[in-house]
């Protein structure tokens, strides 16, 4: 399934800067960055629960915000991309 994650982490303090880095690292472990604070994560339900738990335990609900957009398994009919940043598809060939 595809989950789009967006976040806004306050970086006014050193703790906030650390939280921002940790949130981004968690997202990078499960998806790709499509904007500065937006990730597309192709995960199965078990992976999603692990990632969501990590994110919710990292952010500060009094200073930060997280948004999760559940696009599901039929996401390709719900996403349109224009411009220089093309979307990644899990069906694409990846060369590492």
CATH architecture: 2-Layer Sandwich
Rounded to an integer in angstroms, the radius of gyration calculated over CA atoms is 14 Å
Mean pLDDT score: 87
Strands in their spatial order, largest beta sheet: 2-3-1-4
Percent range for β-strand residues: 25-35%
Overall outline? globular
Main sheet: strands, sense, barrel: 4 strands, antiparallel
Low-confidence stretches: none
Number of strands: 4
CA-to-CA gap between the ends? 23 Å
Spell out the helices and strands N to C.
EHEEHE
How is this structure best described in words?
The protein has 96 residues and is of the alpha+beta class. The chain has one domain: Alpha-Beta Plaits (2-Layer Sandwich), CATH 3.30.70. The chain is built from two helices and four strands. It has a four-stranded antiparallel β-sheet with strand order 2-3-1-4, with helices on one face. A hairpin with a 2-residue loop joins strand 2 and strand 3. Helix 1 runs antiparallel to helix 2. The radius of gyration is 14 Å and the shape is globular. The model has no long low-confidence stretch (mean pLDDT 87).
């Amino acid at each position: 399934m595809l989950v789009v994650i967006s976040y806004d982490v306050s970086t006014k303090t050193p703790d906030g800067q650390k939280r921002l880095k940790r949130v981004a690292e968690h997202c990078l472990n499960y998806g790709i960055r499509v904007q500065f604070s937006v990730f597309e994560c192709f995960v199965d339900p078990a992976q999603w629960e692990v990632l969501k738990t990590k994110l919710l335990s990292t952010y500060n609900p009094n200073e930060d915000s997280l948004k999760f957009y559940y696009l599901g398994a039929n996401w390709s009919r719900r996403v349109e991309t224009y411009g220089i940043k093309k979307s990644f598809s899990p069906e694409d060939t990846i060369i590492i």
